Each structure stands twice: as C-alpha cells, then as structure tokens.
Amino acid sequence: MRHAIVALVENKPGVLSKLCSLIARKGFNIVNLSVADTEKFAVTRISMALETTELSASTELAQVVHQLDKQPYVLQVFNLTQADPIARETALFKIAAAPDVRGKVFHTCENFRARVLEAGPDSMVVEITGDHQKIDAFIAAIEKYQIIESIRTGEVFMTKDSNALMH
C-alpha cells in the first residue's frame, strides 16, 4: 500500500537528511520525495510516498509519524493516506520520434494530455502531470518508442478541504 506523508519542517540545513534517516531506521522505503518552499517564510513542505506490503505496517507507520512529529525541526506531520488527497507529479520524457512514428507519439501524448515541449528531427521532449498511476500508464504506452531519457518529480499531496495544513 502507498502512504502519503507530508511534513512541514524548518528550512534549515540537514533537516531532510535527519528525517530520511529516521524513516530508514524504521525500515520504511521512501518511494518518492518532493521538497519545496511553502507560503510560510522559513517553512519547507516535504511530501513523501512510502510503500508498504505488510498489513501490520500501518501501526508501525503511525509510530514513525509520531516520532517524526516529536523531532525539534519538525513543525507538523500528516498522514494523508486516509484523507484521499490530490496527488500530482510532473515527468519529462525524451522520446525517440523518427518521422515515421512521430504522428503516433503525438497521438499518444494527446490521449494522456501530455504536452510536447520540443520536437527535434529525431526526438521529442514531452511533459506530463498526474498521479503516479497516470505517469506509469503513459510510460507503458510510450515504451514501444524508445525512451531516451526521463525524470519524475515525485508526488506532492494536498487535501481537498478548504483548511490549510499549517495554522
């Protein structure tokens, strides 16, 4: 199961390293990680997706969230998994697109609402935004063309209600 964890932390050197070390010591793997400034000065938002396979992991995950929340550099921690958050990531792909397949690649991009950012003579750079399932499905659809290079940002999470996480 994939868990959506958001930590609001002080924007100071070493905070990310300490947070990741604590999670690793507890045996959890961070599937993706996104770190960025927030609307509040000196506050950084860390969005993490943690993947677990064991049913007992939810209790252990709650303990990890509690331990993270006790750290002096952590302002607040949220497990948004049950809140059904909006999750988005952006990915860029450089795809081999010789003239004979270019139309097919364009069509695939249209089907996934991906944007072609650059079209060269033999390749295309494409941007797509969505949840991790959409990005994975796009990859499956374009694998038959050669993916020359790719990068994914990692998911960020936001609740659907009108409340801010940090008050």
Explain this structure to me?
- The model has no long low-confidence stretch (mean pLDDT 90).
- Strands 5, 6, 7, 8 and 9 form a five-stranded antiparallel beta sheet that branches. The protein has a four-stranded antiparallel beta sheet with strand order 2-3-1-4, with helices on one face.
- Helix content is 27%, strand content 40%.
- With 167 residues, the protein is an alpha+beta fold.
- The two termini are 29 Å apart.
- It is elongated and about 60 Å long.
- It has helices spanning 15-25, 57-69, 102-111, 132-142; strands spanning 2-10, 29-37, 43-51, 74-79, 86-96, 115-119, 123-130, 147-152, 156-158.
- The protein has four helices and nine strands.
- A hairpin with a 3-residue loop joins β6 and β7.
Biggest sheet layout: 5 strands, antiparallel
Structural class: alpha+beta
State which percent range the strand residues make up: 35-45%
Arithmetic mean pLDDT: 90
Unreliable stretches covering 5 or more consecutive residues = none
Order of helices and strands: EHEEHEEHEEHEE
The total strand number stands at 9
Shape: elongated
Question: End-to-end distance, in Å?
Answer: 29 Å
User: Please, how many helices?
Assistant: 4
- What's the Cα radius of gyration? 19 Å
Helical proportion? Answer: 25-40%
SSE blueprint and pairings:
Blueprint: E1 2-10, H1 15-25, E2 29-37, E3 43-51, H2 57-69, E4 74-79, E5 86-96, H3 102-111, E6 115-119, E7 123-130, H4 132-142, E8 147-152, E9 156-158
Antiparallel strand pairs: 1-3, 1-4, 2-3, 5-7, 5-8, 5-9, 6-7
